[in-house]
Design a protein that fits this description.
The chain has 460 residues and is α+β, with helices and mostly antiparallel strands. The chain is built from 17 helices and 18 strands. 53% of the residues are buried.
Length: 460
C-alpha cells in the first residue's frame, strides 16, 4: 500500500471510525467471489451507511487516485469484486432499506445493499413481487451492476427491463439520479441502461428504482424428463415459438440431475429434465400446461410430475437454485469454472449438443443447467485450481463454448458479465465497438479508479 492510499484510509477512518477496516479476515472476504478466479484483497473496507457517505469516500479516493471496488453479497462469478490493484472496497450491505413502495404504480425504490430475498419478504404482504431471480441471494445493487437475469427472465425480462432508475456516485464523488417513475420517456440519453450492466466501472450504484408485479392468482410447477438433451431443447423451442407464456422453463442435464438428487434430496430420473412454471389464472395456467405437455409428449417427454403445493414448488426451485453447490459436491474440494453463453433460441439445440459432445470427451466433470427459454445455459467445469492440467482443460473448453456461441450469433455471457474473466471475449464479440465503450469509461472515470481491471484491459 503506497503513501497516498495509507493517508486516504487514515482520513476515512478519522471520519467513520471502526466502519473502516483493515482486518485481514475482512480484507480476504472482500477480495473474493464465488468463482475460480484468484482472490485479491483490497487495502481497506468501508462499510457505508448512506449515499452521502459513499460519495464522501469516493471523493477521497478520487483525490488520492485510489481504486474503488463496490461490494454487495460477493456472489459474482467472473472476479468482479477482486481488488486487482488494491484500493478501497465499499461494502453496501448496511444500505438495505426499502425506501418506498407504490402498489398502485407497481414500483419501489430500494437501497443497493438490500438482497432479493429480503425484498421478496417485504413485498409479499402487499401481493407484490420482483421477478428477477438469479438464484443467489444477491444484492439489488449488484444485480443492477451485472445486469442480472435468472429463471424467470423468459417471461419477465432481466434487470435491464425491470430497473426504472438509479442513484449513482460518479468517479469524482458527485451524485446523479437517472430515469424516473414514468413508464416511458423520450428525454435525453438513457443513462439508466448505461449504468445497468456497467459492473462498477462507471459509478457506484447506491439506490435502485424497480418495476414490480402482482403475485399471480395461480402458480403451477412441474418437471418433465427426456431421453436426450436435444428432445428437451426442441420442446423448449416449440413452446417459445408458439408464444406460450411460460414463467420459467429450465434445463438440467443428467449430470446435474444426479448432483441435485444427492444434494437437495430430490428423486428425479437421471435424464435431461425441464423444470417448468406457469403463472396466471386457474383456467389460463391449465391451458398453458396442457399445451406444453402435448409438445413434450411429441418429443418423447415423460408425463409432467407436478409440484402440487407451495412447499413442493419451493423445494423444486430451491433444488434448481442450489444447482451450483450441488455440482461442487460431485468433485469434493473442487471450484467451479462457470461459463454462461446465450444464443438465438433457434441455434440452442445445436450449441448444446455440440457442447455436450465436447464435455463427454473431457477429463472434467461439467454439469449443464440453463435458462433455456431465452437461449442461455451454464456449464460448471469442476476443477482443482492447483492442477495445471485441469485448469488448462477448463480454459480450452471455455474457449470452445464461447467461440461456438458467438459464431452462432450469441454472446460470451448471458448474465454473469465480463468482470476480469471474459475481457478477451468481449473484444472478440464486439470488435471496434469496445473502443467506444472505453471512450465512455474514460469520460466518466478519467483516472480509471472505478473497479479497475474489469471489463477492459488496462486504461491509462
Amino acid at each position: 500500500m503506497d503513501e497516498q492510499s495509507t493517508s486516504m484510509i487514515e482520513e476515512l477512518r478519522s471520519r467513520y471510525g471502526r466502519r473502516v477496516s483493515t482486518s485481514k479476515s475482512v480484507l480476504d472476504q472482500h477480495g473474493r467471489d464465488e468463482s475460480h478466479h484468484l482472490p485479491a484483497p483490497p487495502d481497506a473496507v468501508f462499510f457505508a451507511a448512506s449515499t452521502d457517505e459513499v460519495a464522501d469516500a469516493v471523493s477521497l479516493c478520487a483525490a488520492a487516485k485510489v481504486p474503488v471496488i463496490p461490494f454487495g453479497a460477493g456472489t459474482s462469478l467472473e472476479g468482479h469484486v477482486a481488488a486487482l490493484r488494491g484500493g478501497l472496497s465499499i461494502d453496501l450491505t448496511a444500505m438495505n432499506r426499502v425506501l418506498e413502495v407504490s402498489a398502485a404504480d407497481l414500483d419501489c425504490r430500494v437501497e443497493a445493499g438490500l438482497t432479493r430475498l429480503a425484498l421478496a419478504e417485504r413485498l409479499a404482504p402487499q401481493g407484490l413481487f420482483f421477478p428477477v431471480d438469479p438464484g443467489a441471494d444477491a444484492t439489488i445493487g449488484g444485480m443492477a451492476a451485472t445486469r442480472a437475469s435468472g429463471t424467470s427472465a423468459v417471461r419477465y425480462g432481466t434487470m435491464r427491463e425491470n430497473v426504472l432508475g438509479l442513484t449513482v456516485v460518479l468517479a469524482d464523488g458527485s451524485i446523479i439520479r437517472t430515469g424516473g417513475r414514468a413508464r416511458k420517456s423520450a428525454a435525453g440519453y438513457d443513462l439508466t441502461r448505461l449504468f445497468v450492466g456497467s459492473e462498477g466501472t462507471l459509478g457506484v450504484i447506491t439506490e435502485v428504482a424497480l418495476r414490480l408485479r402482482g403475485i399471480p392468482e395461480v402458480i403451477a410447477a412441474a418437471t418433465c424428463a427426456f431421453d436426450t438433451i436435444n428432445d428437451a431443447v426442441d420442446t423448449v423451442i416449440e413452446t417459445i415459438q408458439l408464444g406460450i407464456p411460460v414463467a420459467r422453463i429450465e434445463l438440467l442435464d443428467e449430470v446435474q440431475v444426479r448432483a441435485s438428487n444427492r444434494f437437495s434430496g430430490t428423486d428425479l430420473p437421471e435424464k435431461p429434465t425441464l423444470f417448468i412454471e406457469f403463472h396466471g389464472s386457474e383456467a389460463g395456467t391449465a391451458d398453458e400446461a396442457r399445451a406444453v405437455a402435448e409438445i413434450a409428449e411429441t418429443h418423447g417427454g415423460a408425463k409432467f410430475a407436478w409440484a402440487t403445493n407451495s412447499e413442493d414448488r419451493s423445494a423444486l426451485w430451491r433444488a434448481r437454485h442450489d444447482a451450483y453447490y450441488a455440482a461442487l459436491q460431485l468433485v469434493p474440494h473442487s471450484k467451479g469454472w462457470v461459463t454462461d453463453v446465450c444464443v438465438p433460441i433457434s441455434r440452442l439445440a445445436e450449441c448444446l449438443v455440440e457442447t455436450k459432445r465436447d464435455l463427454e470427451g473431457s477429463l472434467l466433470q461439467a454439469p449443464i443447467v440453463g435458462h433455456v427459454g431465452d437461449g442461455n445455459f451454464h456449464v460448471a467445469m469442476l476443477i482443482d485450481p492447483d492442477d495445471p492440467d485441469q485448469v488448462a482443460e477448463a480454459s480450452r473448453l471455455n474457449q470452445r463454448i464461447i467461440e461456438r456461441a458467438v459464431a452462432l450469433g450469441g454472446t460470451c455471457t448471458g448474465e454473469h458479465g465480463i468482470g476480469a474473466g471474459k475481457i478477451a471475449y468481449l473484444e472478440q464479440e464486439h470488435g471496434p465497438a469496445v473502443e467506444v465503450m472505453k471512450v465512455v469509461k474514460a469520460a466518466l472515470d478519467p483516472h480509471s479508479i472505478l473497479n479497475p481491471g474489469k471489463m477492459f484491459r488496462d486504461i491509462s
